[in-house]
Amino acid sequence: MKQSSTSVVVMSDAERRERLRNRIYAVFPVVSVLLLILLWFLAAGAENSTFPSPVDIWNRFLLLMEKPIKQLNLFGHIWASLLRVFIALAFAWLLGISFGILIGWNKKANALLGPLFTAFRSVPPLAWVPLMTMWFGTGEFPKILIVFIGALMPVVVNTQAGISNVQNMYLNVGTIFHANKRQMLFEIAIPSALDAIFAGVRTSTSAGWMVVLAAEMLGGKSGIGFLITRGMDSGDYALCLLSMVCIGLVGALLAIITQLLERMVCPWTAKKSN
């Protein structure tokens, strides 16, 4: 006759505290959102308040879906902004990573082009708006170009820092195994700098999203920035706040997507954070 044996797992006090701490951290985001909504209702319900309530925002959303502005509903305007950002980011990442590797790896290129880039980087992206408007008008190309300028800087800076700060130990190993310059760059330096490169990708994504909204507010016929300007000009506070809520939600979604992309390409970053 066989006896069934059961194993009892006994957790230590440290493990219990760690599990309790993780549960508390998981609840904190929900609590913060509930507190924000509560404050929102209190601000909207104050006497003589013109601040739209969450109900007003929802009703304005339904109205915008029923009666589009410039033949676009809310999701159409969000897509118009995202499309500009995606096009600009594709060029910013391609050129920014390439240029960052060049000035981070080649000392002659850094001496020649580094000071020019530093001076160019000191100019805020929105400072280019008047020139872009005079040169190219108020169409799609100047908006995308402004976003490209804003998204380019973080990629170049982080890529250059990652390439130039590769540990000498890795390079010495390559030298021992008789690696040529191309192998040292593509098989040692660039993989070692992936963390820094993706940090620039994350920063450039958020920067591009902010810049496109500002560019649309200065001139445009579609996009979330245009909706804010439209609401401001017409005194439609609900439309302005609805657009701001969408900006926050889309920005958070972009941050999550870039973080997931980083974990796919650089899985060791998730282990470091844990």
UniProtKB/TrEMBL annotation:
Domain of life according to the entry: Bacteria
Parts of the chain that traverse the membrane: 24-43, 82-105, 112-132, 144-163, 239-261
GO BP: transmembrane transport
Any one annotated GO CC term: plasma membrane
Record membrane topology: Multi-pass membrane protein
Major location category of this protein: membrane
One Pfam entry name: BPD_transp_1
Location within or outside the cell: Cell membrane
Keywords, ordered alphabetically: Cell membrane, Membrane, Transmembrane, Transmembrane helix, Transport
Keyword set includes Membrane: yes
Record keyword Transmembrane present: yes
CDD domains assigned: TM_PBP2 (cd06261)
UniProt domain ABC transmembrane type-1: residue ranges: 78-262
Similarity section: Belongs to the binding-protein-dependent transport system permease family.
Entry protein name: ABC transmembrane type-1 domain-containing protein
Annotated organism of origin: Flavonifractor plautii 1_3_50AFAA
